[in-house]
Amino acid sequence: MTTAHDLTIVSLEVPSDHPVERGDLSLALAGAELIDLLEAGAVVLDGLRPRPGSPTPSEDALLDAAASLAVQEPAESVEDWLWRRGDGLAARYLAAAGADDGGGRRRPRWNARRTAGRQAPVPADAPARRRAGDRWSGGDPVLVALAAAVGIRHEAADQVADPEDEGIDDGIAVVLAAVNDAVVELAAIRQRRSIEEAAFDNIWRGL
Fold first, then answer.
1. Residue 34 pLDDT > 70, yes or no?
2. In this structure, is residue 24 part of a structural domain?
């Protein structure tokens, strides 16, 4: 499993002060993919631009798709790549987790099967949940930082506010910063649209 799959599971399992926005999650998932590609050496950063590294199949279709996208020319900035790769990405990961039908409609989180004549909830992928849970409970700095970007807090979140304090690689720190910037930008876009829609509604009420 990948960091993006772990983040998806955390977004489903960990209580949050407010629902996780699909757009925010999509940007963070794109960042998680890029971080895994950097750690695998499939992608390297040339300043703020992802460049081809030594690609190796990951056996994860979503991550391999990200790898092929990250090495296309012309190279773009990390943040531009997050926006392009993140388009609709949350729906794909939620569908892979069994929590979305791929069309934006949420399904029950986990599959169920009959046991002793009654319905008993069973994780769709118990090892994946266990792995994500272990990373989360252990305060994995990358997973905690990505979750914090979408509004999911961990007691260790403040400790990773400065990646250098956690010994996070410079390239990974660049991606985490880009994720935060993109999420903030998306929030500003939502607010601007809300104001514009409210103003439009007021115009019609005045007619």
1. yes
2. yes
